[in-house]
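Ticket #4471: structure output looks truncated?

Reporter: J.K.
Steps to reproduce: submitted the chain below (155 residues) through the standard prediction queue, then opened the result file.
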Amino acid sequence: ETILENSGLIKGQHYESQQSVKTEDNQRLIPDFIVHLPSSNSEEVNNIVIDSKLSLVAYERYFNSQTEEEKETNLQDHIKSVKNHIDELANKKYENVVNGSIGFVMMFIPVEPAYLLAVQSDNSLWEYAYNKKIVLISASKTKKSLPPSFESYDE
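Returned output as attached by the reporter:
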């Protein structure tokens, strides 16, 4: 949330936090953030979901590994954890339940080195996510991707 605030966004105006949405079968989902993107048409709503619930247990184990064998095992577990979360997000189908969704979800990985380790160790990870309508982002990527989208809020 700090990243959104530091980008000049105002909670309740530019984004919502932990807003409950319901699926067609009445299942309740709670995305971490729904960011309201500016639109040239005042009647049109464009929203993007940002999820930040990725477990970093395997990354922590990787970081604390004592042997190369442990390190490799924990690296594969970290990548598997990221892929599992991508699959979970894809299965939620936020694009169908969040009004005005732009059709994909931003999966925020809060620890920059954990993000880099995953995408650098598995060259297909970013594409794997993208094919499931998930975009992997880190703190630095979030800061770079949001401000240009919100220039029209100041106009």
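Triage note (M.O.): checked the attachment and the full token line is present. Strands lie at 15-17, 21-22, 28-29, 33-37, 46-51, 101-109, 134-138.
Status: closed, working as intended.
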